[in-house]
Amino acid sequence: xxxxxxGLIGCGLGAGALYGSFFDxxxxxxxxxCMDIDKKRAEILKxxxxxxxxxxxxxxxxANDEIDAVIVVTPTNYHAEQVVKAAEAGKHVFxxxxxxxxxxxxxxxxxxxxxxxxxxxxxxxxRFNNSFLKVKEIVDSGRLGDIFELxxxxxxxxxxxxxxxxxxxxxxxxxxxxxxxxxxxxxxxxWFMGEVDSVSGHVMLVAGxxxxxxxxxxxxxxxxxxxxxxxxITMLTHRRGLESYEIFGTKATLLMEWKFHSTHSLEPxxxxxxxxxxxxxxxxxxxSWNPHEELIDNWQYLNELRxxxxxxxxxxxxxxxxxxxRAAVExxxxxxxxxxxxxxxxxxxxxxxxxxxxxxxLQKESKWQIKDQDAWWSRY
Length: 380
Ligand SMILES: NC(=O)c1ccc[n+]([C@@H]2O[C@H](COP(=O)([O-])OP(=O)(O)OC[C@H]3O[C@@H](n4cnc5c(N)ncnc54)[C@H](O)[C@@H]3O)[C@@H](O)[C@H]2O)c1
Fold this sequence. Notes:
Distance between the termini: 37 Å
Shape: globular
Mean pLDDT: 96
Bound molecules: nicotinamide-adenine-dinucleotide
Strand content: 25-35%
Order of helices and strands: EHEHEHEHEHEHEHHEEEEEEEHHHEH
Strand order of the largest sheet: 14-13-12-11-7-10-9-8-15
Number of helices: 12
Structural class: alpha/beta
Number of domains: 2
Low-confidence stretches: none
CATH architecture of the largest domain: 2-Layer Sandwich
Helix content: 25-40%
Largest sheet: 9 strands, mixed
Radius of gyration: 20 Å
Oligomer: single chain
């Protein structure tokens, strides 16, 4: 089978843990180049993957004619600049979520990829997870009746993190926890429930001594079809984690729950359908007895890369493209703006708000402290 030659930009945690070991299983692509401004990190990923080339300069990597496409896994505030450069160099682009901090940057990325006629896929990998696909199929089949509400919960135990140790928690990232992790469940709400019409956001910073941006958010979305969805998200739970989606229809209620989170799991989500106020049908996916088979079949990061390479090989449009990434960016910015203005924000958003004043206000309002010795953490 012909393989797409890939170069990876940003060889940090995500690159190593989510993709690094799995290139071996990518039938239609191979990683040939690793680029990071930190040479040591690029060397580690090169060793892990067996890639041929190492770069610390993006322009040098983009000048390599062997590379067909790039995978962008840098901090979100660099995505736009790097994606535009890659498109100009004629490379197809697979870009991590959140696509960008602002809709203006998302537009630049979409325009550049259209202009230079390269594919753009955004790494909203839950859309390639078999359990999420199963729920989408059930929703679309009508089995739940007309759907009027979705409640999403996303909790993590991450207080040992800090602005000092991670770009995500600094102002420079352009958004906080809602932007960073929230982009996943926000995308799921839109995927299951349709385009969003208006957004209300409530945003808090609890651990003001550790983070420069939000660590607790509540977002309510009204969809164009009249239905409503909500996301309650925090990185401050004392549980190990929780991810759940409860979908209410006129015929049934569906609950998909992950014991901790779907992100790092090959286990299927527990999916149950409730009817007539008590009748429960468990529709959780079966798994094989074989972890190797599970990995090949259901590692969502591998599945999305396979799809991306396929789109390049067979001239197809990625099923999670720039418009999907942009839509999540728009909803997140609308939620932040709603919190700033204390009112519901109607879409489309004309421009992205300047969030620095919001985060400065959150700093002032934060009443709590989590000291290093009291901080807690779970990688599930
Ligand atoms: N889809 C997911 O489940 C998932 C999970 C983790 C991270 N991510 C996303 O991946 C991206 C990176 O996150 P991470 O956790 O790997 O961060 P990280 O800080 O662990 O790694 C980022 C890497 O980028 C490098 N870098 C910084 N600036 C650079 C530049 N200008 N050019 C090249 N390299 C540069 C850093 O040296 C570092 O090695 C973010 O957008 C994040 O949201 C997605």
